[in-house]
Write a structure and sequence with these properties.
Blueprint (H helix, E strand, L loop, with lengths): L2 H5 L7 H9 L3 H16 L2 E4 L1 E6 L25 H13 L4 E6 L7 H14 L3 E5 L5 H10 L3 E3 L7 H7 L5 H13 L3 E4 L2 E2 L6 H13 L4 E2 L2 E2 L16 H15 L3 E2 L10 H9 L4 E2 L25 H14 L3 E2 L14
Parallel strand pairs: 1-11, 1-12, 2-3, 3-4, 4-5, 5-6, 6-8, 7-9, 8-10
Bound molecules: iron/sulfur cluster.
The site of iron/sulfur cluster (SF4) has 9 residues, from loops.
């Protein structure tokens, strides 16, 4: 099947077909198709989700991540409940209807504290709450759903069990998959995804990452570029080219179709230029960072990031202006999954 036939095919793509899409050099055709599919399901709107990164303590040791437990150089911080709630208020006051509470794997924030934050934020502000706080117990997932959490993002990072156990020495892929299935089962809108361009990753692995998202029936996906992080074993590895990231995002859209796809990178969080490329390739979500000072300033000594150290409000304004300059509009809704919208 040539690319044109492949792009117009009806029904689900096979693994071999996804690999063919990922191997295609005709990036323009992939992107054109991805935009057509995104616009069909979502129109020209871009959804903003305001992130509060409330702790960078982490008990995990993911090989590519600056927050890994073994990184003794990075300064650590934890925000208080009041600081987190204030950041959520700032997000809401700026017309954003999703608050993403994100942290490393940090059990300092126990079941009750996270429940309190969810309950308070949902009661005071008209927002959806997304959690992105790593693997926790099934009981906690249940408690936080009851407290009002809407969504849970937990990237599987790699659907290849061998590389998964290299990237995450403490954990196994099947456990992460079980957690994602359970979250979906108890009613969360679930997001997963990979890191594009990790060392040892193959095209077949990326195809399997997309297929795993389809199997998990995700509502949201984040396929973010690998950026070598300082003070990690991968700090001297090659950064993945933007064009390849755009190609993968386009193929994710073509295969998974009606899900929210974010355009973000781990450490260039408010770098709108890199994010524009994701939007142009088929993504429809941007996550402006509302982590307040002084915590956001912790990054500038360790991470070479564009836009990150600006204050949240000026970064947010830049993001809004650039989105509008692309001819797109910013959604005014919470942006719930369109797979489950009929239930709301
Ligand atoms: S990727 Fe997440 S879980 Fe892994 S070290 Fe970084 S913050 Fe911790």
């Amino acid at each position: 099947m040539d690319l044109k036939e492949l792009l117009n095919k009806e029904g689900d793509y096979t693994r071999d077909e996804i690999i063919s899409l990922l191997n295609s050099e005709d990036i323009d055709s992939l992107i054109e198709k991805a935009n057509e599919i995104r616009d069909f399901y979502f129109g020209e709107t871009v959804h903003l989700r305001g992130i509060v990164e409330f702790s960078n303590y982490c008990s995990e040791n993911c090989i590519y991540c600056s927050y890994r437990e073994d990184n003794l150089i990075i300064p650590r911080y934890r925000m208080s409940a009041d600081e987190i709630i204030n950041a959520a208020k700032t997000i809401y006051d700026n017309g954003i209807h999703t608050v993403v509470l994100q942290s490393g794997s940090d059990n300092y924030y126990d079941t009750d504290l996270i429940s309190y934050l969810i309950y308070y934020i949902k009661r005071e502000f008209d927002v959806a709450v997304t959690l992105s706080i790593g693997e926790r117990s099934f009981e906690e997932y249940k408690a936080w759903k009851i407290a009002g959490a809407d969504r849970y993002i937990m990237k599987h990072e790699s659907a290849n069990p061998k590389t998964y156990s290299i990237y995450h020495r403490k954990n196994q892929l099947f456990e992460r998959i079980n957690h994602l299935k359970y979250l979906k089962h108890i009613g969360y809108q679930v997001g997963s995804g990979n890191i594009i361009g990790l060392p040892l990753q193959t095209i077949e692995d990326i195809a399997d990452d997309i297929l795993l998202c389809r199997e998990l029936d995700v509502d949201m996906a984040a396929f973010t570029p690998f950026i070598p992080a300082p003070n990690t074993p991968y700090q001297n590895m090659q950064k993945v080219p933007d064009e390849f990231v755009m190609k993968v995002i386009a193929v994710v859209r073509i295969v998974l179709k009606n899900i929210y796809i974010s355009s973000s990178s781990i450490f260039e969080r408010n770098n709108i230029k890199s994010r524009e490329k994701g939007l142009l390739a088929g993504a429809n979500v941007i996550l402006p960072d509302f982590t307040p000072s002084p915590y956001r300033d912790y990054f500038k000594h360790y991470i070479n990031s564009g836009g990150l150290i600006e204050d949240p409000l000026s970064s947010h304004k830049i993001i809004k202006d650039r989105i509008e300059a692309l001819g797109k509009t910013i959604a005014s809704t919470k942006g719930h999954s369109i797979k489950t919208q009929s239930n709301r």
